Amino acid sequence: MLKKRMINSFKILRCIFSLIFMIFSLFGCKSKAPSFADCLENEYPNRFQVLDTFTDDIIGNLSFSVKTSIVAEKSNNLIQTSLNWDKRLENFNLSKSKLDSAFSKAQREYKDALSLYKTTQENGLKEIAVGIKNGTVFILIFAEPTLTHRKNSLLILEKCFAKWQKEGAYEMNISYLEPSEKDMNFKEIVPLLYWRQSVGEFKKNMVYSTICPYNETFLATKVGKNWEYNTSSDRFMYAIEKARIEGKKWASGHLRKPYEILETVEFNQIEKNPTIVNIKFPITYQSKETESASYNIEADGYISMDYNVENNTLMSKIKMTKE
Description:
Blueprint lengths: L1 H26 L8 H8 L4 E8 L2 H4 L4 E8 L6 E7 L9 H27 L5 E6 L2 E7 L4 H17 L7 E7 L14 H6 L1 H7 E7 L7 H4 L4 E2 L4 H21 L5 E2 L4 E4 L6 E9 L16 E8 L4 E2 L4 E3 L2
Parallel strand pairs: 5-6
Antiparallel strand pairs: 1-2, 2-3, 4-5, 6-7, 7-8, 9-11, 10-11, 11-12, 12-13, 12-14
């Protein structure tokens, strides 16, 4: 009887283990689907490396399956391209013709960027980097953007663009970045990956920019009229705080007390001069106790001034305005 019970127990255990094995076979032991990197490797053995992948426009695509990858040549990782793919579709919705076209374009743009960089060095424009993205060639200049430096740079670039041996047609963007940013992310050529991973840093550290459309001849005098000061830069935010100090000094001797200068600020670049900005700091005569938070307080007026954000100096008398 005992032996029979033991046999029955073994049969039950065997059935349980068989059931567990079957469950794992169904849900836990499927072969892994090929990845996007596997797809590239199969089509182009040992040629490319995937540098970064991110989900592309979740709301627009209504899916987490649509991705964008930055892919580089292993032989020269400055030759980079951006590929959009969908993991739900066969071959990730990337035909060989699409891939060949993308990689050919990346090689052409790298060649054009390198050609322009060499031309700038031959003509004496130092402390720069060159990159191409979305049909625009970027000349990043790492120097103090004084008026003299900007004029001289454009004159040199006029010669460089006239001599540039290139295959593509590009819009031209000239941007001054903080000198301290040189060599932080790249040297001569700006890789495509930089725009993906460091676009926030670029916005903070870019001080001036100007552009020339792809279908126009680059003329220094014309392009020089389009300089814009980057109001998202750290340098601009520093200037705003310096202007706030000037406003506080003025307010202490001109406004009836008690008053409060609110934390917000309004500004407007004055036409034809990108460095002269009209800045307004809202003030209120209400006490904080009358409102739950200062952002709910309506301004009773504005401390207004014209301010040079390039050298942090007042360009007009400070005054009170209603709006």
